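Final report, Chapter 2: Outcomes

The project's central promise was a pipeline that accepts a single protein chain and returns its three-dimensional structure in a standardized token representation, suitable for archiving and comparison. That pipeline is now operational. To close this chapter, we reproduce one record exactly as it appears in the project archive, with the input sequence first and the structure output second.
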Amino acid sequence: MSNESRPTNAVTSPLEGEVAERSKAGGGYLSAASNPQRTPLPDPPRQGGREDSQPPSQKKPKQQFRREKRDVHGWLVIDKPVGMTSTQVVGAIKRLFSCRRAGHAGTLDPLASGSLPVALGEATKTVPFVMDGRKTYSFTVRWGEERDSDDADGAVTATSAHRPTRDAIRKLLPSYTGTISQVPPRYSAIKVDGERAYDLARDGEIVELSARPVEIHRLELVNIPDPDHAQFRAECGKGTYVRSLARDFGRALGSFGHINALRRESVGAFGENDMISLERLTELCHRAAAGEGSLADAILPVETALDDIPALAVSRADAARLQRGQAVLLRGRDAPIFRGTVYVTVAGQLLALAEVDRGEIVPKRVFNLAGVVGSRRPQKGH
């Protein structure tokens, strides 16, 4: 999740053995070794199939294989597996697509699974709209132990033999719905005097973080599989820490608690139906390399992230001015009657993010969508 970041020991990506290498000459994909250190391609034989007969001391150095980077624009919503870091997922996608730019819209801890939106190319300009959106989580709290990280990876700091009843849990939840004051976990990405809180905590320093307001739109008890565990679902706003919810539930119920399992089900406009696994994505890329489909079919359009803001169509003449960063004044029936942020289109194509005020359109971010542009249709419903 966007604020569930903390350091963990590096893990080897399960995708490393499936990440495709694209041949610069042939445009195809070559399977990488399972070892993250790639083995250079061997030198080709001389014409006629004769191997180089020069003594080793006279041989020319082997040329290192370098993949050509390309422009790819759009969104991928990865169903992140447990055990991978968000950074590892982004790295795997950059290698898979050979794209110039990529970044995620909200970190998920290695312990967590689920929705990790990754922006490619010009879609990185829309990341703030995704990070500001609502997020939905399902999570399991393990009663009886509080841990320094507020999840199962941390050290136990307090224990209790008391287990809360279903009725006690249900009566507690309304006090954690709406705008609440929440203290972030010690192991979080919040900066304290210029240092990340998780770096200070890892070094053994006592980190005291201030409470901050967060919004919990919906919170429900889903199941109690056994006395030691309870399963919940929450819909919350930006900056909410689910790990803190588990910690605070445990303290309020007198039984202590920490996150035992966590899955992010949706982020902003991206729901569960938009998710794709890394394995499936790798398969689609291999098929595209073999001429069986297009990479664009696996990528959501850039404007998918802008689902909550109005769209405004303009003429080609006005589009040319906006493309140059110049404001456009619309009059008459074409003038927009609202104020605020819009995304501008021309002939159905995304052009810019802009601010509208009394008919004047002022471009803020202009998109250059040359290259591979996502064409996968978003799936309705979360």
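Archive annotation: Helices lie at 86-97, 127-131, 166-172, 197-202, 242-253, 278-289, 316-323.
This record, like all others produced under the grant, will remain available to the consortium after the project formally closes.
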